[in-house]
Amino acid sequence: MTPVDTDERPFVLIWEVTQACELACEHCRADATPDRHPDELSTAQGKALLDDVRRFGDGQLVVLSGGDPLAREDTVEFVDYGTDIGLRMTVTPSGTRSLSTGAVRALADAGVKQLAVSIDGATPGSHDSFRGEAGSFEQTVRAARDAREAGVPLQVNTTVCAQTVDDLPAIRDLVRELDAVLWSVFFLVPVGRGRVLEPVSPERAERVMGFLDEVSREEDFGVKTTEAPHFRRVQAQRAQSRDGDGGPRRRGGITAGDGFAFVSHTGDVYPSGFLPESAGNVADDSIVDLYRDSDLFETLRRKDELTGKCGACEFRQVCGGSRSRAYAETGDPMGSDPLCEYVPEGYDGPLPERQASELAGD
What ranges does the record give for the region Disordered, renumbered to this chain (predicted)? Predict the structure, then answer.
């Protein structure tokens, strides 16, 4: 597989087709509401966006998200259209009544390449409490099994925060039982309704990543983190300790603006849904031009211009830290990621407030 040049195209482009959703999830970035916004991109505008995305090249991955993308009646039409023009279309529906067996089959028939569902608790009680809707766990698990029956690869998304972290081993078992191909573990960024939740500490996050590294080596499904790129640093260090095959590499995965782009329901283009600084709007400019040439995106791709301990870190090219979390907690998207426990050898500069307090024993 030819490596992706992330200066030219993203690995992943997410289009938030709507913010409408029946759920009231405690961590919701979008502050989703039951009703659709009147200024959402129309069906015609959505297809024009997909046509423009096609300029990135063959097989560009597009994720239709929300809110609940199935709150729009034309989401299946977007999957069908994107598939026809050569895009790899995936969908992240909410665990609501809209995620019916018929909806899963319709997405499969339209050519969806993967379905991603969210499981944030190992039991109906814990998951439904987090998602704010009784019955969400049952609907989500049923839809996951429907996807398997329809031959659609399944991804399971899980949020890590103080409320969910103890359930991770049991959720891992459920991911295995559902025959998922990928477990995507999202480390909370305090935006939207997520500001009221308690994140895990840097020390706890480090232990969770050690657990996830073990899972990635033991299970048949893949494991990735969202907004926690220092998982790659943890994996490299553990590989070095285990068998001498580790240490920094030249390039890593994706971070906000570097291999990743986000289009909002109204067409604003962001480096990530968790980094609300807009580079422009698809109604006025090409998504391709905004990704490649905007000052915001170009700056975020310059890992050597990171500041604080992220800028001093020998793993900055393989990791780069969460630019979204740095922005959410400091206002500077190029600053240190406050969730990362690692301090580069010889670094004597300032530490993120949360980490400095932890080291001081406060």
Answer: 234-253
> What is the C-alpha radius of gyration for the chain, rounded to an integer number of angstroms?
20
Q: Is 262 helix (H, G, I), strand (E, B) or coil?
A: strand
User: pTM score, two decimals?
Assistant: 0.91
Residue 6 has pLDDT above 50, yes or no: yes
Position 344, amino acid? P
- The residue type at 293: D
Cα separation, 137 vs 93, in Å, equals 13
DSSP for residue 165: G
As given in the structure block, the two tokens for residue 67 are 């809110």
Q: Are 156 and 117 in contact (CB under 8 A)?
A: yes
φ/ψ (deg, to 5) at 298: -60, -40
In sequence order, which residues have a C-beta less than 8 Å from that of residue 30 and are 6 or more positions away? 16, 19, 21, 66, 67, 192, 273
Amino acid at 49: L
Q: How far is residue 96's CA from residue 98's CA, in Å, rounded to a whole number?
A: 5
Distance of alpha carbon 135 from the chain centroid: 24
Please write the tens of the pLDDT for every residue from 65-120: 998 999 999 999 999 999 999 999 999 998 788 899 999 999 999 999 999 999 99
Domains and CATH numbers, the chain: 12-200+254-301 (3.20.20.70)
Task: Tell whether the model's pLDDT for residue 34 goes beyond 90.
Answer: no
Strand locations in 231-333 (E): 260-263, 268-270, 280-281
pLDDT tens track for 191-228: 754 455 789 999 999 999 999 999 999 999 999 999 99
Quick one: residue 227, left, alpha or beta (phi over 0 = left, psi -120 to 50 = alpha)? Answer: left
